[in-house]
Structures are given as structure tokens and as C-alpha cells.
Amino acid sequence: MFFALTALDKPGAIETRLKTRADHLAYIERTGVVSQAGPLLNDAGEMIGSLIVLDVPDREAADAWAAGDPYAKAGLFKSVSILAWKRVVGE
After folding, report:
1. What is the rounded CA–CA span in Å between residue 87 and residue 30?
2. pLDDT tens for residues 52-66?
3. Count of domains observed in the chain
């Protein structure tokens, strides 16, 4: 089952994002449940959040993945939303 995780960074938290980015990417690789992912950008092209599509069995697994993300553990996000998602286009 797919879940779309959207997270917005706390204002002025770019240093936190940059310092934990390698750990975040390693977590994505290690867990093997991320279908698609990338940063959300503002109009100036600066990273301000994340969009991650998880392929996990249920909401509990999505919540657990989100809680284990190094970005979350570092306190990067001011808000996080996780919603079930149905893929209609793409592979």
C-alpha cells in the first residue's frame, strides 16, 4: 500500500537538513520502502520540505518509518502529513 508523506521544514532549518541529509538518504536506501522521494522547493529553488512515497503494508508501518527518519529525529520538520495514496499513473 502506498502512503504519501509530506513534511515542511521549520523556518531557517536548512543547516539541519544539510547536516542530516546523508543519514536520511542512507535510511531510505537501508529500509527499501521508498517508491519515490525528493525535496519540496520554494520559488527560489531552495529546499523547504520533503515529499516521500512509501510502499508499506499499512499506516502503522508508514508512521514507524516516518518516526525513524533521521530528518524527523533531528527535529527538522514543523509539520508532517501522511495520507494513503493510490497510484494511477506511472510505475
Report:
1. 23
2. 999 999 999 999 999
3. 1
